[in-house]
Amino acid sequence: MSARQIDDEQLETPAEILERAAHRGHRMGLHYAGAVTPAEAHRLAQAGAASIVDVRTPGEWRDVGHVEGPPLIVWPRDGRADEIHEFLRQLRESFEPSQALLFLCRSGVRSHHAALVAASAGFEKAYNILGGFEGHPGSGDGWRSSGLPWTR
């Protein structure tokens, strides 16, 4: 992404970004509010228009790195009902169902499932962060490879 593209994205309002995310989600056939790029997620979080929710494991969060600030609410890898209920319990304790939530995992797969379950549980503004934290090898599509701020 060029500096010009980043500057252009920063001129967009959060409402414009969320509208584009909704259109993207519709084109992708998603059953939740939409999908954002890491740069869009960063812009929304910086503007206070949405909250990032990291759904990776504590080991990934600690060893690979993370975005500073967002809570870690682990998405259950094996999908057991009790673990999904615990995920939703933590989500409800941390956020109101009316808040815009941006789910982040390693590559965008677990966060897709987290957004889907959150939306079905009443979180109508659930979004997936495409490419996740690490992205796909060689693509440059993740949070970290996009040059956005992170820490270890």
Polypeptide structure, described:
- This protein has 152 residues and is of the alpha/beta class.
- The protein has one domain: Rhodanese-like domain (Oxidized Rhodanese, domain 1), CATH 3.40.250.10.
- 42% of the residues lie in helices and 10% in strands.
- The chain contains six helices and four strands.
- A four-stranded parallel β-sheet has the order 1-4-3-2.
- The chain is globular, with a radius of gyration of 14 Å.
- The relative contact order is 0.19.
From the structure above, extract its key features.
about 150 residues, single chain, Oxidized Rhodanese, domain 1, alpha/beta, four-stranded parallel beta sheet
Number of helices: 6
Mean pLDDT: 92
Along the chain, the helix and strand elements come as HHEHEHHEHE
Largest sheet: 4 strands, parallel
Topology of helices and strands:
Blueprint (H helix, E strand, L loop, with lengths): L2 H9 L2 H15 L5 E3 L1 H9 L4 E4 L3 H6 L17 H14 L6 E4 L5 H11 L5 E4 L23
Parallel strand pairs: 1-4, 2-3, 3-4
